Amino acid sequence: MKKNLLYIMIFTMLISLMACGKKNESSKGSAGAIELKLGHAMSEGTNATNLIHEFAVKVGEETEGRVKIEDFPNSQLGSETDMLEQIQLGSLDAGAIMTGSMQAIEPKMAIEDLPYMWKDIDHARNAFDGEFGDYLGKLMENYGLQKIGFIEWGYREITNNKRPIVKPEDLKGMKIRVAQNKLRVDAFEKLGALPTMLAFSELYGALQQGVVDSQENPLANIVAANFNEVQKYLSITDHFYNQAMVVVNKDTWEKINEDDRKIILDCMNELSEKIKDANDKDHNSYIETLRSKGMEINDNVDKEAFRKAMLPVYEEWSATFGDELMKIYNEASGW
């Protein structure tokens, strides 16, 4: 009898311990979840926006809900400089911020916006995947930001309502919108244009009302933002090449355990490659879409003339970038 009673007591204790274990495991899975907000400026409907959302979902799945990411496209959380400040303060967790826009806090980051800085897209991609990208990421650590990867926005093209842009002189006197970025202003002034800094969210209205005549963006943004409704000419100038650096507030990053950080980095690497593939695949279809919607397409651009006209920007900004960064760039540029 006593033996049976002992067995019953042991069995009851085991059941209780198992129940407690499950309860603790359940609470760990929910209460321990880290929720991140990630903002960026790319338009809704673009490959980049769709794939960033896919990345956010996958991180949640791969971490089994321990890390949840909510993405906010189309500058919903403010301009890139606004989002950058929010991430530093910790009021926003993460963002995909165009690397050149980070000159708002670190002047050296403006190097990304040197015109015609890469011989071809392969040199550009290899640079961001290599020492050049690593150097820029290290710079951001000084400002409380952890780089987790890059996302290709791609080459930027010019649209306007006045004429096809074939040679630098065609931009003379033209009011062109640029991002909040001093180097871009300097570059377009070398062409005789009248650059105006505006947030992307204000751009469609500014074109519609004639506040500016022209703008420059990646093809994906031009299509998604329906700029064909307010612009007549598209010229394939390829004047700037951009990648966005994906950064996380450093304090927030350090709260994530090592295994989940690795999952996030792996998912980010996958995202970066998918976006490059999508950009390659859809380049011509974007152009044909805009043509079918009534835009006049000009791909007969004298890019060498543009590059020569804008070269003085390199000399003017080289002191800002410093010898070490310029050496890394020159070795990677392909020129």
Automatic annotation (TrEMBL):
A Pfam family matched in the record: DctP
Highest taxon above the source species: Bacteria
GO cellular component: outer membrane-bounded periplasmic space
InterPro entries: DctP_fam (IPR018389), TRAP_DctP (IPR004682), TRAP_DctP_sf (IPR038404)
NADP found in the keyword field: no
Example GO biological process: transmembrane transport
Gene3D superfamilies for the chain: Bacterial extracellular solute-binding protein, family 7
Keyword set includes Signal: yes
Alphabetic keyword roster: Signal, Transport
PROSITE patterns reported for this sequence: PROKAR_LIPOPROTEIN
Similarity comment text for this entry: Belongs to the bacterial solute-binding protein 7 family.
NCBIfam families referenced in this protein's UniProt entry, alphabetically: dctP, TRAP_S1
Protein name (record): TRAP-type mannitol/chloroaromatic compound transport system, periplasmic component
Species for this entry: Peptoniphilus lacrimalis
